[in-house]
């Protein structure tokens, strides 16, 4: 089984490059999809360019742009519900199968167990909308050691506990391989043990968050072979900053993961 690969377009859109240039090159390489983070003023142009080159949109964020102002606070739940409902409408119009959600940062006086319940409460409000739309809400796992100090959903077990309490086929995790290598390692075993709760993957080399080459410590060929072998049918998206030419980095990542 081969993996469906995507890429986060802002990482690879270098100065002077147009959407059409990037997407045409990605399509020639063999990518079936691209993705974005936040839906801004350029979304219509972006979606049209992707369509022109036969690329699906694999994922985008479902709510607010700040990980510090997210599901970990009950006061945010009503606002997030409205934002996600709007995002689901966009997802339905454009065939986007995944929306990203964020736990937000740890709150003073809120222990891990109670934080699980608060996040699960927020996602239970969202789950019926996602189930009706047939779109996954993927709670993103981020590292709190290097890039996102204080972020709550920084361990696979914590994220799985939230998903178990929501108990919806449309509430899953975005397993970012780079972030989880920093926080806990043991990537292949963790993925295999928790695959039922994983809806999407992101890649990047560690350390540095750059290319998937032999200057970083992750064996992406082995990781991708394990993911494909476990029967994962979602997208694995590249979210790294190329050290050199962006198109060549996209090509190398694609062939490395496709060859797994």
Query: What is the rounded Rg?
Result: 17 Å
Report the span from N to C terminus. 10 Å
Low-confidence segments, given as residue ranges, are none
Shape: globular
Helix count? Answer: 10
Number of domains: 1
Mean pLDDT: 96
Which structural class should the secondary elements be placed in? Answer: alpha/beta
Number of strands: 9
Largest sheet: 7 strands, parallel
Characterize this entry briefly.
With 260 residues, the chain is of the alpha/beta class. The protein has helices spanning 9-12, 19-29, 43-52, 77-94, 112-133, 156-166, 177-183, 187-194, 220-229, 246-258; strands at 4-7, 33-34, 56-57, 59-61, 98-101, 136-140, 171-176, 198-203, 235-238.
């Amino acid at each position: 089984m081969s993996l469906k690969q995507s890429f986060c377009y802002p990482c690879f859109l270098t100065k002077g490059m147009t959407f059409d240039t990037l997407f045409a090159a990605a399509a020639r390489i063999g990518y079936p999809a691209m993705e974005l983070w936040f839906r801004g003023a350029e979304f219509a142009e972006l979606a049209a360019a992707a369509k022109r080159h036969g690329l699906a949109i694999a994922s985008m964020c479902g709510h607010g742009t700040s990980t510090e102002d997210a599901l970990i606070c009950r006061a945010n739940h009503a606002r997030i519900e409205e934002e996600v409902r709007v995002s689901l409408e966009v997802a339905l119009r454009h065939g986007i199968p995944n929306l990203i959600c964020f736990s937000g940062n740890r709150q003073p006086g809120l222990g891990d167990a109670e934080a699980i319940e608060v996040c699960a409460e927020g996602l239970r409000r969202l789950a019926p909308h996602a189930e009706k739309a047939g779109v996954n809400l993927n709670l993103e796992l981020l590292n709190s050691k290097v890039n996102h100090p204080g972020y709550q959903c920084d361990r696979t077990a914590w994220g799985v506990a939230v998903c178990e309490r929501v108990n919806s086929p449309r509430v899953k995790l975005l397993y970012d391989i780079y972030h989880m290598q920093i926080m806990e390692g043991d990537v292949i075993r963790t993925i295999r043990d928790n695959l039922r709760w994983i809806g999407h993957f992101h890649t990047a080399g560690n350390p540095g968050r750059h290319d998937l080459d032999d200057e970083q410590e992750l064996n992406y060929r082995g990781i991708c072979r394990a993911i494909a072998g476990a029967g994962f049918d979602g997208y694995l998206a590249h979210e790294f900053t190329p050290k050199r030419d962006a198109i060549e980095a996209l090509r190398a990542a694609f062939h490395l993961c496709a060859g797994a």
